Amino acid sequence: VLKVLSHIDSILRSPRAPPLIYRRSKGPVQTYTKENGQECGFEHLPLTIEMWADQLMALKDLHRSLRKLSLELVPWHAADPQDNRESIRVEDLQFVVDAILEEIENKEKNSQTPSLPTLRAIVSHFQKLFDVNSLSGVYPRMNEVYTKLGEMTNAMRNLHELLELDSSAPPTVVVDTVGKLCDIINGNVTEQVQQLLGTQDIHSIIKKLEEHECFFPPFQALIQDLLCLLEISNLDDILPTVRNLK
């Protein structure tokens, strides 16, 4: 126990410890003796530990306040994924402060930093262009526009490659090329239909369709009557049945 108390005493007396942490008691308090006979003043140890505990709790409140300030001054910085952890270190606070100071220094160095009215005009113009009703909807709409732009860029890149166009070809050239390709496909389909019907004349096609419309209903009625008369249900059985009757 004396070794542990002696070790604590050496920590409290360390030059790294704040000067108010260790004080020699002036009153009649209980002291312990080191192995070499020197006294160890631990009467302030409970108060010191309580002060340390209060400071650690205050670090969380200070970190929370600094995060709120950071979100106000530099809202485009991503939130720290470890904001909700239980232990907060001084390094975490210093990181937030350094980020804020760096942003302020960059603004001071940049002589072309737009004024507040200019920034308001830019935001207002963005809201009008992309139909954003509130300031809280600006960032989500920016992300949406960025995503859509990436999708369109990828689609245009793929079309350039499929159509074997130069990457610098404007969208109008891509649209015209696709239109010509559709015309070629439609022309091939029309030609195939004409070959299938055995004519290249559209009037002949119309005539054949009219003849079919005139011929098919009576033929279908005749077949149905034969099926009923011969008491069969399959077209392939008509000829064998008629031969047997003959």
Mind explaining what this structure looks like?
The protein is mainly α. The protein has a domain at 201-245. Helices cover 66% and strands 2% of the residues. It contains eight helices and two strands. The chain has helices at 2-12, 45-73, 90-109, 116-129, 138-162, 171-197, 202-230, 238-245; strands spanning 32-33, 39-40. It has a two-stranded antiparallel ribbon. The chain starts with a helix and ends with a helix. This is Centrosomal protein of 70 kDa. Keywords: Coiled coil, Cytoplasm, Cytoskeleton, TPR repeat.
The low-confidence parts are 22-40
The number of distinct β-strands equals 2
Q: Give the end-to-end Cα distance, rounded to a whole number of Å.
A: 126 Å
Give the overall shape: elongated
Element order: H for helix, E for strand: HEEHHHHHHH
Number of helices: 8
Radius of gyration: 45 Å
Supply the helix-strand structural class.
Answer: mainly alpha
Report the sheet with the most strands, covering strand number, pairing sense and barrel closure.
Answer: 2 strands, antiparallel
- Helix content bin: 55-70%
Overall pLDDT metric = 76
Strand order of the largest sheet: 1-2
User: Into which percentage range does the β-strand content fall?
Assistant: under 5%
InterPro entries: CEP70, TPR_rpt
Keywords: Coiled coil, Cytoplasm, Cytoskeleton, TPR repeat
Subunit structure: Directly interacts with tubulin-gamma; this interaction determines centrosomal localization.
TPR repeats: 136-169
